[in-house]
Amino acid sequence: MGNERGRPRKAIEQKEFIGCRVTHEQYFIIRQKAEEARVNISDYMRQAGIFGFVKPRWGEEEREWFKKLVGMSNDLHRVVEIAQREGALTAMLHFAAYRDLIDEGIKKLTYDQ
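Above: the chain sequence. Below: its structure as tokens.
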């Protein structure tokens, strides 16, 4: 009885099915756009229908930027410690080095939607 097999049940079960017919050309266009967004066709159609746009999954470049931002947040924590210990002027000099990198990373990881 406690020996369940297979994938665990999803928290939110999708019960309704909506199917639509498309031409061969439309299918390949939708499939290509889904591949560009790095999602499957069902997720692409669901997001396009609900939100009006598709938020693509992060690729390798975005993951690397996120790792850099995490590293910078650790460095900024050290800058705060320097500010507490040595004063705000010294900390401002350290922070200036990170300001442009942080702005670039945030722009890279956000979508203009």
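The first helix runs from residue 24 to 36.
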